Amino acid sequence: MATIANPVLTLTPFTENTQQKVKIEVKYNVTFTQSEIDLQTSGFKFQEVIQVLGVDAPNPVDQVLVSNIVPVQDITIPGVGVAVSRMRTAKALRKDLQEDPMAGDADEIRCSIQIIPVAASAFTNTVSLAG
Predict the structure, then answer these.
(1) What is the DSSP letter of 42?
(2) Which helix (H) or strand (E) holds 26?
(3) CA angle, 51 then 122 then 88, to 5°
(4) What is the pLDDT of residue 89?
(5) Strand stretches in 32-106, DSSP E
(6) In angstroms, rounded to a whole number, what is the distance separating the alpha carbons of residues 96 and 108?
(7) What is the residue-level pLDDT of the chain in tens, covering all 131 positions?
């Protein structure tokens, strides 16, 4: 199983075209095993999935604030035990990171990082739906 180490989230508020935004930066290292290299050789892909979560105690489950802001990305395994350094960035509207019910309260944010094996994927045909 892949090992994720040293995950760090940095949030940097800024203004763009009069809109309040936040730069989201996620850094971490991931190390793969021989089993995963064997799977990659057999055609498996490993994808990175990052979700932005609001942490609101005492709620036991974090609220997904933004799930697709950091696009899913394939990771190529360079070798056994080799740490792959990852850094992903995205921009979000500040209002989308509001996880507390009252404006002005501090919002506690963290990210979920998942490395997921994908054996096969395909698209269906495209169907038009009158609107």
Answers:
(1) T
(2) strand 19-31
(3) 25
(4) 93
(5) 45-54, 63-66, 73-75, 83-93
(6) 13
(7) 889 999 999 999 999 999 999 999 999 999 999 998 898 888 888 989 898 888 875 666 677 777 777 888 888 888 888 899 999 999 998 888 887 767 667 888 889 999 988 877 788 887 877 77
Identify the DSSP state of 67: S
Residue 99, both tokens: 């996880």
pTM: 0.82
Eight-state DSSP code of residue 69 = S
The rounded distance, in Å, linking the Cα atoms of 48 and 90 is: 14
Task: Using the structure block, give the residue that is written with the tokens 């990210």.
Answer: 111
Contact 108, 55 (CB under 8 A): yes
What is the Cα–Cα distance from 131 to 122, expressed in whole angstroms?
26
C-alpha 97 chain-centroid distance: 15
| Ranges of H-type helices in the chain | 34-41
